[in-house]
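Example 399.
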Amino acid sequence: MRVKDKHILLGVTGGIAAYKAVELLRLLKKAGADVTVIMTDNAQKFVGKTTFEVLSENQVLSDLYFDTESSVKHIDLATRADAAIIAPATANTIAKLAHGIADDALSTTLLAVTAPVMICPSMNTDMYQNIRVQRNLDILETDGWHILDPDAGVLACKTVGAGRLPEPWFIFDRVEAMLTPKDLTGKKVLVSAGPTVEAIDPVRFISNHSSGKMGYAIARAAEKRGGQVTLVSGPVALAPPVNVERIDVETCEQMADQMLANLESADIIIKVAAVADYKPLDPKTSKIKKQDNTKDLSIAMTENPDILKRIGQNKTSDQFLVGFAAETDDLEKNALLKMEKKNLDMIAANLVGSSDSGFKADTNKVKLFFRDGSSFDIPLIEKDKVADILIDHVIEKMG
Ligand code: CTP
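Predicted structure in complex with cytidine-5'-triphosphate:
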């Protein structure tokens, strides 16, 4: 979303990881970015120019004097750029950039870029840890460029250690973060997501259809906006959001403990999780066996704590508390009642039960209600976008 319609320069230098830049380009294009690839001569020994040209739908810049339509194309590109990424970045290119050397299309163009720049070093571990390379990276970082640390693992040279280019989805995620205005800097955001699971016996449980997608989207959005995010998560099949502290829980009691333990330092609390209101009164330690003569079976249930209500009772006036209301009927009436009962500053109400909104969908249609009586309709859009709009409103209401 943040790279949509942005002009992005993707610099590719001569490392074995150059092939990953192809996938990164694909992700950027899919997200709606206009990407121009700049390749060094050595990069072209690893991946052909045509691949990048076809996928980017733009001419690849590799030679300042022979390839371009205009003699100052590199300056046009640099001026228009909203961001530049160099992935993979070799020690040689890093050294040139750190010292302002402009002897090829990439280093010359980068000298004229004033937009945010991300450098993704990738090389042998000893090279990466070499004091000169580290010094050059420090120079670039001090100058305000973003350095994405390489992953550790088995490298192409069979060395095991730091130096591997992170996966394209991760670089893409960090580029999005780089381009996101940091309006939550200094704020601690506590989010709960996913379902809770209450054991009946060692093999059976009571839970719900929550996928965790909405809560995870909120955690990701808050992190990208500079918030320090703690995510208390029930069991879900989602990748942990980057740079977010995730605390895994199963039951409502465990979720309550973790939410309350992290409550005091939180500025914003967003309780998205679908919590089981009741749990089996007497969970068995052995599997309940089928009784041949029993047609009906009842499981005695007992109430779980209402975590949100408890937070509402304990929160300070500086803390902003957001609840969710998953409803099948009377959306507005039920949501307003919950906001009142649980002492919330805002409630996000959504109808569950349809395939394009609610629990498992990637999209959601939400209505926000605020303590001051106002409300805001978010149309059916992707949960990532819902998350950002919801956070916009939190920030506005917090003043
Ligand atoms: N919630 C909670 N603890 C519970 C139940 C709900 O913290 N034991 C929170 C949810 O995380 C959500 C809000 O309360 O933010 C509303 O949850 P929802 O399931 O819609 O409503 P309930 O309060 O459980 O009421 P009901 O099931 O009757 O609709």
